[in-house]
Amino acid sequence: MKIGIIGSGAVGQTLAKGFKQEGHTVTLGTRDTSKPEVVQFNKETGIAVADFETTAKTAELIVLSTKGTVAADALRLAGIANLDKKIVIDTTNPLAEKGPDHGVLHFFTSLDFSLMEQLQQLVPAARFVKAFNSVGNASMYKPQFKEGTPTMFICGNDEEAKKTVTGLLTSFGWETEDMGTAEAARAIEPLCILWCIPGFLRNSWSHAFKLLR
To answer: Closest by alpha carbon to 64, among 87, 33, 32?
Structure first.
């Protein structure tokens, strides 16, 4: 597929390289294509770099990987019409601009309305699927844990979109657990808080979640 990444930070770059490795055509979208780190990324990987609008317009599937505080603005810059009927993998978390409290991050959302629900409301014709928000970027592609294959929790309102994302996650080395409609993002997004606590308290960042039956 032609995959467009909206957001050129560590998560966006990691996923872009993973998708390229799996044979997809990838464009890394950024607000500023002249940023030294983006120029260097292009030179090192050969992955195309473009502005958000061009990235969204030319892609068949979108990955949103910005900070949660600017996610809505990024979608507006990408162009609401350019997202029509396209799958949008939402990796974002609603992290507030303040430090953690005893290792516990703060959100700017409540448990009654998630960030993904807000974004779905902003772009109702897009097919949002929550994924990649509950693990560090170092383990997003081909994670290796001695306990086995980790679980990625996803949700979204479109069943076909979730099937497509599940296939991509499988190729990335994950097992997928579909938690239902967009409302489930109210539970999936806070997994980021839980995942980060060992990091802040003990500098332990190499872990992932696993659903056992």
So the answer is: 87
CA distance 171 to 142: 8
pLDDT, tens digit (0-9, with 9 covering 90-100), for 175-209: 999 999 999 999 999 999 999 999 999 999 999 99
First to last CA, the chain: 34
**Contact assessment for residue 138 and residue 206, using Cβ atoms and an 8 Å cutoff:** yes
- Please tell me whether the overall predicted TM-score, pTM, comes out greater than 0.85 for this model: yes
Q: Looking up tokens 């002249």, which residue turns up?
A: 34
Q: Are 27 and 48 in contact (CB under 8 A)?
A: yes
Please state, in angstroms and rounded to a whole number, the distance separating the CA atoms of residues 37 and 146: 33
Burial of 23 (0-12, 13-18, 19+ CB in 10 A): exposed
DSSP-based three-state secondary structure for 127 = strand
Token duo for residue 7: 């957001």
